[in-house]
Each structure stands twice: as structure tokens, then as C-alpha cells.
Amino acid sequence: MTSLLCRLLLPQDRRFWLGFVIAGAVLLGLVPLLNLLPGEGSALHLPNYMVPLLGKYLCYALLALALDLVWGYAGVLSLGHGAFFALGGYAMGMYLMREIGTRGVYGNPLLPDFMVFLAWKELPWYWTGFEHFPIAALMVVLVPAALALVFGWLAFRSRITGVYLSIITQAMTYALMLAFFRNEMGFGGNNGLTDFKDLLGFDLRAPATKMGLYAATVIALGLALLICRFVVASKLGRVMMAMRDAESRVRFLGYSVTATKLFAFTLSAALAGVAGALYVPQVGIINPSEFSPANSIEIAIWVAVGGRGTLVGAILGALAVNAAKTWLTDALPDAWLFFLGALFIAVTLVLPDGLMGLAARLRRRRTPQPAPEEKHA
Length: 377
Hints:
Layout: H1 2-8, H2 14-36, H3 50-73, H4 81-100, H5 113-117, H6 133-157, H7 162-180, E1 193-194, E2 198-199, E3 202-203, H8 207-233, H9 235-245, H10 247-252, H11 257-283, E4 285-286, H12 293-306, H13 312-331, H14 336-349, H15 354-366
Antiparallel strand pairs: 1-4, 2-3
Helix pairs in contact: 2-8, 3-8, 3-11, 3-12, 3-13, 4-6, 4-11, 6-11, 8-9, 8-11, 9-11, 12-13, 12-14, 12-15
């Protein structure tokens, strides 16, 4: 443990800690101040609607970080992480629906409005306990992690790798999307879960609640980054990277490839579930479209744009792509999908290491190279 902490505090890592502190100060200090202090007519004022939008971006950043852990370091390209994100979101949505109580359209204290509309007589057994926040919070992590554990154990012990693994992870999320579209599943069908009122007694429409959710997202992202960095700096992280580069050699040396992949995949799924849970109260809805296979592909694009295997790059990629998406869907709504496809092609051909790789190359060019030693006769 001591040696690991020493490695995390090496001089070359000071740039990371400096950036971490500055980013935390900006996100937790400057953003609330710009929202509260300047008047609404000021150019420096951050409108209330921007707070949940920034929170949504940070939820996506946490999701990208989760994928980077398993893809960038363990070499497992999952195209089903949208499923773990959605499951965490549904777990939080179920708690928020139970919080509505008699304030729903039909005033039923036990059944959500959509169940009353569909003539359900009683609450399904798997909704039991979701009126308690601690149970819902546990399910946010446990459900995605359990699915990843079972799915990963079946896949990794069968030595399914590469494109075949990517295909079956996408098949998993597509199957879940079809299942959640069905009204019989008890999750709201096509409309999903919405019309939330409050969280832990706080009105979700209140600016203070929105700021609190934003701050919770910032903290969750920071903690997740530190956890992932701790993992990749450990001996397990070195095994993960070796497995990514030469799996058969790692297996020959006696390490359990299945257990290593399973740990990374399960931890990644749990982080994705947390991202989904923070996302739902800030956007106000969760429906089966979050399971869409296209969403999982887009997550991989975020990681690729930022720089696979860098952690920070995944966060930057998610923020950059989603900020561009927000602007383009307003300015050029018909061109967004073409831009996304062109971006993925450009990154693959021109910037295979993403924005972080580009920054590293520019930094090396600015650094003066030592003069070659003179040859002596």
C-alpha cells in the first residue's frame, strides 16, 4: 500500500493533482458562484437551466470513465455500457416514483400512475423496498454489477474476446431495450418513468436542489476518477494493461485473466450505474431509449475522442462531444449524426490516441531535445 501511494505521488504526477484541484475548484466553487452572485442581466451569470445541463454532461463523463477503465486498460470493448447506465437510472427512477405518493394524477399512494392506468392491482415484488432511499441506492450499484458479474463470467470463462465480445454486449443491451419497452415488465413501457416530484424531500424543480445534484455529480466523478486511478496504478492495474497488450502471455505466466477481466468489468458497470442514477433526477425521465445500442456506441466514441487508456481523456472526450452535440443539434440539427460519424472516422485515422495523445505530442515538440553526444575518434 505504501509503495502504491508513493507511485501516485511521483513528481510526474504533480500535473494530475494540480489539474484535479483546479478542476474541483472550478466545478464546485466557480460554477455555483456564477449562478448565484451575478445578476441575470450580467454576461457572467450562469442561468439556472445550465446547472442540470452541466450535471448531465458530468454524468456522461462518469460513464465514459467507466468504459475507459475496462476498454482502455483491460482491453475489453463493451458496446453494452448503456445498459448498465440505464439500469442504474431505472433503480433511481423507481425510488423517485415511490416518492410521488398521493401527488400523482390518480392519487394512489401505493401504485405509480402508469400502473393505475394499466389496471395493475398491486405493486410487483421487485418494486418492494424502493420507497427507502438506502435500498434504492444499493440497487443502483448492485443491479448493474450483478448483471456484469454474471454476463462477464459466462463470456470471459468461454474466452470470448474482440469483436465477438463487443457483439454480444450489444446484443445484451438490445434485448434489455426490447424487454423494457413491454408494459408487462412494470417499468412504464415506452414512456418509462417520469413526472418526478422530489428527492429525499427536496423539490427537484427548486434551483437549490438542482445545484445540490450537480455538486453530488461533481463529487461522484472525482471519487470515481481517484478509484480508477488507484486501480490502474496498482499491481492489478499493471496486470490489466499487460493482459490488454498480450493476453496469452499473461495467462502463461499464471495470472487469472478471467478474474482480472471480471473485476474490471464489474467495477466499470457499478460506476456506470451510479452515473445513470445521478442522471435521472437531473433530466427528469428514464425510458427504454437509454438502452439503445447506438448510445453504447456513442460512449465508445467519447472515449476514443478523448484518448483511450488515459482516464482524464475519457472525461474530456465526453464533455467535448456532448457540448458539440448540444450546439450542433440547435444550429444544424440535420447534420449532427454526420458530424458524429465523421468525428469517429477522423479520430480513428488521424488521432488514434485522441485529444490526450495530441496534447502529449505537442508537449514533446515544445520540450527541447538534448543534443546528441559527439563521437570521439
